[in-house]
Write a structure and sequence with these properties.
This protein is α+β, with helices and mostly antiparallel strands. About 40% of the residues lie in helices and about 20% in strands. The chain contains 11 helices and 13 strands. The two termini are about 20 Å apart. The chain binds adenosine-5'-diphosphate and magnesium ion.
């Protein structure tokens, strides 16, 4: 993997040609993402604000007329995997990576699109399993390629929804829609404001360089096992909170009514953790709105404070952070960062750090030194330039 997403698909095309004996019909790229603010809000029908990374998954693809799907990834050891598209069945795979692109083919066909076979070869610069949505990048690259090649004319948001369905139903991961929407719909120099209830979206200017700022991603390189069960537990807790409050989803609790809602939950005798989850979700939805207001007013520096509040809420109320993420935030701020927070599902994965351009090195060194001092493995630190969503590259 090269360090960032230089898009040169040459290696991908060569790899494809070597594997399948002819050049691909086309090459598509879809990015990973980080979420600026609005975490664990998407399954509460709330607001999120991701931006696409310059790191992409690149898919070289050709159609086949015999209903066969051949899949290969430069990052997977399995070699070429061959499947019959007519016999694709949800959750039938061996848990391997092929379920993501195969799931996309399945979801397209379930939605009534006439997709035949395909030869697919992918390369990627999106770190996998680091909370940066390599899974969505893989799905969205596949969906975009097949939509173009088979003339389906899918809008980016439709490709994202089918990719989410693939991950939910075919792979069996109960993710929300943010990752796929980010990978499909983001625009360069912008963050994507997304209402996950009705999928209304707005591109919010986030041109960091023009304001002398940088957004760093710190991949802690840890993934604590707790993650999967904790996600389901938070989700159940949020649903219980919404039920008790008599709303369809926590998104329907206005921030101004949060104190009253918390008092009602306590009076109803709900578990203490549910009260905390509700406080996180309702306040994080409000933080999305506050960040948008600041960005649209050109006051990007002031968002740092809100990132820190968001982190405290994820750490103390939702309790999905971990020592490595907390240390990243503390060390960044100590080294002069404007703000930082964990991003994604937590329990490891990555954090984002907002810094003055001139402070990149100092903050990077500060985080690296703190990790060394704590005897943690060295984190991977890179810059998140707000990049474009899925597109054809050749
Ligand atoms: P994240 O999406 O945060 O990176 P996930 O656990 O959701 O983490 O998805 C990671 C999985 O997606 C990998 O374990 C692998 O199965 C699959 N995957 C993603 N990108 C690739 C790739 N380029 N090649 C093969 N598999 C990939
Ligand atoms: Mg994922």
């Amino acid at each position: 993997m090269s360090e960032t997403g230089s898009e040169a698909p040459i290696a991908t095309v060569e790899g494809f040609t070597e594997l399948y004996g002819a050049a691909p019909e086309g090459v598509w790229a879809a990015p990973g993402r980080v979420n600026l603010i609005g975490e664990y809000t998407d399954f509460n029908e709330g607001f999120v604000m991701p931006l696409a990374l310059p790191h992409t998954t690149v898919a070289a693809v050709s159609r086949r007329s015999d209903g066969v799907l051949r899949l290969h990834s430069a990052d997977a050891p399995q070699g070429v995997i061959q499947l019959e598209i007519a016999s694709l069945t949800p959750r039938s795979g061996d848990g391997g990576w092929a379920a993501y692109p195969a799931g996309v083919v399945w979801a397209l066909r379930e939605a009534g699109h006439e997709v035949g076979g395909a030869d697919i070869h992918v390369t990627s610069t999106v770190p996998t399993g680091a909370g940066l949505s390599s899974s969505a990048a893989l799905e969205v690259a596949t969906a975009t390629a097949l939509s173009d090649l088979y003339g389906l004319g899918l809008a980016p948001a439709d490709a994202a929804l089918l990719a989410q369905r693939a991950e939910n139903e075919f792979v069996g991961v109960p993710c929300g829609v943010m990752d796929q929407m980010a990978s499909a719909c983001c625009a360069e120099g912008h963050a994507l404001y997304l209402d996950t209830r009705d999928l209304t979206q707005r591109q919010v200017p986030f041109d960091l360089a023009a304001q002398g700022l940088r957004l760093l991603v710190v991949d802690t390189r840890v993934k604590h096992a707790l993650g999967d069960g904790a996600y389901a537990e938070r989700r159940d807790g949020c649903e219980a909170g919404a039920r008790t409050l008599g709303v369809r989803a926590l998104r329907d609790v206005p921030f101004a009514e949060l104190p009253d809602a918390l008092a009602r939950l306590q009076a109803a005798g709900v578990a203490e953790n549910v009260v905390r989850y509700v406080r996180h979700v309702v306040s994080d939805d409000a933080r999305v709105e506050r960040v948008i207001t600041l960005l649209e007013a050109g006051e990007t520096r002031a968002t740092g404070r809100i990132l820190l509040e968001g982190h405290a809420s994820l750490r103390d109320d939702l309790r999905v952070s971990c020592d490595e993420l907390d240390l990243t935030v503390e060390a960044s701020v100590a080294a002069g960062a404007l703000g930082a927070r964990m991003t994604g599902g937590g329990f490891g994965g990555s954090a984002i750090v907002l810094v003055e351009s001139g402070d990149v090195e100092r903050v990077t060194k500060g985080v690296e030194a703190a990790f060394a001092e704590a005897a943690y493995a060295a984190p991977r630190v890179f810059e998140a330039t707000p990049s474009r969503g899925a597109h054809r590259v050749a």
